[in-house]
């Protein structure tokens, strides 16, 4: 017994030394380019066996050798080695000091919104994810937090919504599903001046294409279910911050709410992230082709994609990102035409969600934005003819040919 204890002790000393010796290289890795970072951050070979993949530590609790000497891990809600690996990767990718992984994007957003309390006022973009809209419009008011929704493509409109008790600004750019663009630098500057905490949902871009922290934003939130995971096989969320005081508060809230990512899902997320960069590059290249083809098609009323030069946010988006991403929306004019189109599509899934290796078509009216009242939806350009496509890794020509054959079925319809 004693021998075993001693051995464990030695092992853990080695572990601690090993971790110390790794602290430096970790920091040096921050300067690597995204394609390298996604492969090498948070995923050092396992120290005892050299395993190339981070082990899945399926432990709820950790033996404490000395009750007076705190160890790195004590209980998996507070910290788990597999989750820590993915949290390090997320932090490095977003260029922040601390990353946090959650059981879903909404768990991450809920935790971020836990920074606010009764009597606080928030300003949020009106073009916001339906679930976030539900939290802000239905749930948080019950705890005394009020939100004003504004057209955040106009920074003046954000400034005009300010109240003496405003504490936070919640943004999403490009927005869902109309791909509206907010000038993140200008919004971050305004928030700084006013002493507000600024939060950006960076799900659509991923850190490979847009890094809000570098533009002055305080808190980055992700639905890691989407591009970060990338394979339509897990639900996960993330927060990354750079400010040490905010990191402390988010860490406290993560442990307090307890909506943490499981060890197994942390591993899946890490695995997904390894190919994030190549996936994003390939997908956005195809998305640009799809957007161009749809825009040229007579059955399509309108295309929303920040990679199109006539998109109202084209210039701002180009200046603050490394690409237009893989999500675009298009309007077919009516619900009937959408239904007819969807029955003909062969390749893309028709589903809630985005960011998978397979292209996914969604119908915001009954899917992502079902929680929004119809008038509210219409006023945001989410009409009954709007479809969103998350472009996957299929061959671009195959994908476009499939969409075009489905569109061809609409001609002779209502016109
Ligand atoms: C999906 C999504 C969310 C919610 O994330 P879940 O992982 O489904 O909880 C939040 N924001 C955006 C932009 C999303 O697309």
UniProtKB/TrEMBL annotation:
Keyword Lyase: yes
Coiled coil: none
GO-annotated biological processes: methionine biosynthetic process; transsulfuration
CDD domains in UniProt: CGS_like
PROSITE patterns to which the protein is assigned, alphabetical: CYS_MET_METAB_PP
PTM annotation (N6-(pyridoxal phosphate)lysine): residues: 226
Keyword annotations of the record: Amino-acid biosynthesis, Lyase, Methionine biosynthesis, Pyridoxal phosphate
A Gene Ontology molecular function term of the record: pyridoxal phosphate binding
GO CC term (a single one): cytoplasm
One Pfam family in the UniProt entry: Cys_Met_Meta_PP
Cofactor dependence: pyridoxal 5'-phosphate
Bias-annotated ranges (Low complexity): 13-24
Regions of compositional bias (Basic and acidic residues) in chain numbering: 1-12
Annotated spans, Disordered: 1-34
InterPro entries: Cys/Met-Metab_PyrdxlP-dep_enz, Cys_met_metab_PP, PyrdxlP-dep_Trfase, PyrdxlP-dep_Trfase_major, PyrdxlP-dep_Trfase_small
Family recorded in the similarity comment: Belongs to the trans-sulfuration enzymes family.
Entries under PANTHER family matching the protein: CYSTATHIONINE BETA-LYASE, TRANS-SULFURATION ENZYME FAMILY MEMBER
Name assigned to this protein: cysteine-S-conjugate beta-lyase
Organism: Heliophilum fasciatum
Classification of source organism: Bacteria, Bacillati, Bacillota, Clostridia, Eubacteriales
């Amino acid at each position: 017994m004693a021998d075993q204890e001693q051995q464990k002790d030695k092992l853990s000393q080695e572990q601690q030394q090993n971790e110390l010796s790794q602290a430096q290289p970790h920091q040096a890795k921050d300067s690597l380019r995204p394609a390298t970072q996604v492969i090498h951050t948070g995923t050092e070979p396992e120290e005892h066996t050299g395993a190339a993949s981070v082990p899945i530590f399926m432990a709820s609790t950790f033996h404490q050798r000395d009750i007076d000497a705190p160890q790195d891990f004590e209980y998996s809600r507070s910290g788990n080695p597999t989750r820590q690996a993915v949290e390090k990767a997320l932090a490095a990718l977003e260029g922040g000091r601390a990353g946090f992984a959650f059981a879903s994007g909404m768990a991450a957003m809920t935790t971020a919104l836990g920074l606010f309390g009764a009597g606080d006022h928030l300003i949020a973009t009106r073009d916001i994810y339906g679930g976030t809209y539900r939290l802000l419009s239905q749930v948080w008011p019950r705890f005394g937090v009020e939100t004003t929704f504004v057209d955040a493509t106009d920074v003046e409109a954000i400034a005009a919504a300010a109240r003496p008790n405003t504490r936070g600004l919640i943004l999403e750019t490009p927005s869902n599903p109309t791909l509206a663009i907010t000038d993140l630098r200008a919004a971050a500057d305004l928030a700084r001046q006013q002493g507000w905490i600024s939060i950006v949902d960076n799900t659509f871009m991923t850190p490979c294409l847009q890094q809000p922290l570098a533009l002055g934003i305080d808190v980055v939130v992700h639905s890691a279910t989407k591009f970060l995971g990338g394979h339509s096989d897990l639900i996960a969320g993330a927060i990354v911050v750079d400010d040490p005081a905010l990191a402390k508060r988010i860490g406290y809230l993560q442990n307090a709410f307890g909506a943490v990512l499981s060890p197994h899902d942390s591993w899946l997320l890490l695995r997904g992230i390894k190919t994030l960069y190549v996936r994003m590059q390939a997908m956005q290249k195809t998305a640009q082709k799809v957007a161009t083809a749809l825009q040229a098609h007579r059955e399509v009323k309108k295309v929303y994609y920040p990679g199109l030069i006539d998109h109202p946010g084209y210039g701002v988006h180009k200046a603050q990102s490394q690409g237009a991403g893989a999500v675009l929306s298009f309007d077919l004019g009516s619900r009937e035409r959408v239904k007819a189109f969807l029955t003909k599509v062969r390749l893309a899934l028709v589903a809630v969600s985005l960011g998978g290796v397979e292209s996914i078509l969604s119908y915001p009216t009954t899917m992502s934005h079902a929680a929004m009242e119809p008038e509210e939806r219409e006023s945001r350009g989410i009409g009954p003819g709007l479809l969103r496509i998350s472009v996957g890794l299929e061959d671009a020509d195959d994908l476009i040919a499939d969409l075009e054959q489905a569109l061809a079925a609409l001609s002779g319809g209502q016109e």
